[in-house]
Design goal:
The protein is an alpha+beta fold. The protein folds into four domains: about 10-150 and about 170-190, Jelly Rolls (Sandwich), CATH 2.60.120; about 195-310, Jelly Rolls (Sandwich); about 315-650, Glycosyltransferase, CATH 1.50.10.10; about 665-730, Sandwich (Maltose phosphorylase, domain 3). About 25% of the residues lie in helices and about 30% in strands. The protein has 15 helices and 38 strands. Strands 11, 12, 16, 17, 18, 19, 22, 23, 24 and 25 form a ten-stranded mixed sheet that branches. It has a six-stranded antiparallel sheet with strand order 5-4-7-2-10-13. Strands 9-8-3-6-15 form a five-stranded mixed sheet, with no helix packed on it. A hairpin with a 2-residue loop joins strand 4 (about 45-50) and strand 5. The termini are far apart. About 50% of the residues are buried. The chain binds beta-D-glucopyranose. Beta-D-glucopyranose (BGC) binds next to helix 4.
Length: about 725
Amino acid sequence: MDNWKAKWITTLRNTDDGTAPLYFRNVRMRKAVKKAVLTITAMGVYVAEINQKRVGKFILAPGWTAYRKRLQYQTYDVTDLIERENRLEITVGRGWYHTHIPGFEMVEADYSRLQAVLAARPFGLLAQLAVTYVDGSGEVFGTDERWEASTGRVRFSDIYHGEIFDAAYERKEGLPVQIFDGPWDTLIPQEGPEVREQDRVGVADFFITPKGEYVFDFGQNLTGYVEVKVKAERGEVVDLSFAEVMDQEGNFYTKNYREAKCTYVYICKEGEQTYKPLTTFCGFRYIRVNRFPGGVTHAKAEHFTAIAVHSRMKRTGYLTCSDGMLNRFFSNVIWSQKSNFLDVPTDCPQRDERLGWTGDVLSYIKAACLNYDVEQFFEKWFGDLRADQRENGSVGFVIPDVTQDPNSSAAWGDVAVTGPWEVYLAYGSQGLLTKQYESMCRWVDFITKSTTHKNLWMGGWHFGDWLALDAEPGSYRGASRDEFVASAYYAHSVSLVILAGEALGKDVAGYRQLYQDIRKEFCSVFPDYRTQTECALAARFRLAKDPKRAADQLAEMIREAGNQLQTGFVGTPHLLHALSEYGYSELAYTLLLRREYPSWLYPVSKDATTMWEHWDGIMENGAFWCDEMNSFNHYAYGSVIDWVYTVAAGIRNMEGYAGYEKVCIAPVPDERLGWLEAVLHTRHGQIRSVWRKQNDVWRYEIEIPVDGEIRIDGRVYEVGAGNYCYYSKIEKA
Ligand code: BGC
């Protein structure tokens, strides 16, 4: 919007003690109103009310972007809220704008300097109410010197630490606001989907821990907050803490939140009341009631409802099968996606990080695009990636790049290339690809320029095969060689730049040559593979001289390990594909269906309701992997679900197509499952692929909305849109 009729306002004195300033103004309508529109943004997170009714449903607006370059504003139709005399009240909490991210200091500043930087940031507000009267004339009420500021009922607000809300607080007199030259160049209209309240989850269980703590269990790990309904006397307090799991003794466990305090303190007014926080969120399954009106023994299940909050996204993919544990696993993947798609794709929603870790997105994005329509969600995030990409083309560890670490890691920064390509394959629109193409090229060019070994990526700092099980004891980094992983991803990214360039009609001759050179060098420098992840990458990216042999070696390594995977963030998304692409589908299923540690189903056996960061976040003996890095809501390993859609159920784009404009359905059943059903809502309509064991035959039901091919048992059927049924004999081993 170019014609703002408002000024940036802030409080006269900026004290960042966590209190959220409240800005207000009374406005009078001179005539009957036809339409009223509020346009608004803030440096922090805002909650706007007109005549004590909340404006819109956007939680934590204006959302989280690369603030140095982009700050979204929102526009709401508020016609229904407007009366003759109106009271506009806007609270601005710290949000991401002011929050010191405890787990990650910005390297640019030492802690005290950082505190000073944050404390000096104004709680800026820019808003305007544009009114059209029935006679066609109009009026705009923008933030300006006529507004006042005061302290409101949000006495403390912080993304990581929670909220203190005093419902009994009598507001102080307003003070004049200060006009300042806030960010104008960086303002952009809302780009991503709105963050909204999505699901309400009631209490499933109540118990008192050995330590005597009063704990309510919602039965589902999720991200959002808790709504409290209570009858109280003025000044009584509800005080809640949050946790994902209980410790080995059954006590309330918060150590894995690290420095994120995640507490709500609600100071009651008189009578019946409902509270939910306005300016914070966290990931949790359990709450501990620390204080409650009349004492904690008065807290009952009916007082609490968990509310899951995330970006709006339409569910598109559904998987169900004959195995209850696998169904729970599918559900856990969905819940981890919901939990970590709160405006930015985050690693985890609970501890003192909750950051847009690029490597986590890289491993999960394909699965994300199958489960939900996340095109708009990623349009925004890649907009931030583009904005935060550095001069030299490198991409930070997290987007928005709040850590400002100058390094770039392979298989993290590569999301700059793999991400837009996956989004294109999923939805078929060239919009994002076109916007990102230059950024994609700049990323691979950065590698070309910064490597210490021509045609491979050597040097630099990398996370490696993060959290792989072949790591040295005590290390987070798996045994795969950094240069191997980095060079494999270099090749892979260049190959995708070529495909993207071809799709967009660009000249990619230079990248084709580069790809040939990388592949040649890769084969000569890395003739052998030392880990499961190295084999998987060499096979899947077709980098090995003989990819089939790399897959053979992978299968052998897995069998030698006792049918156990050892891969981390880098190898896991490719593991089952690398097997099934070379004839080892049965082994892939063995890994998928394995219930003992290490496996995807092991956490399910430990009552997980979301994906864990570690294969053994809770070990077989019940102890935790560790306290300091142990999230129980990390989507990365949920990436395997893409194998279930695309290989087990066999739903894919036909070679050379995107967005399921033409499809190939090539199911791969396995006798250990009686049946599997996958449904995918594509932009062209619904695809459904089901297989079921009937005595000694497989029965396949396939529904496709477009032309395509169906591949069953080595036969290829070219078909048009419609419903099909096939049978194939079950081969006995
Ligand atoms: C995050 C990860 C991330 C990693 C990078 C962790 O603290 O939670 O998921 O990718 O750091 O090393």
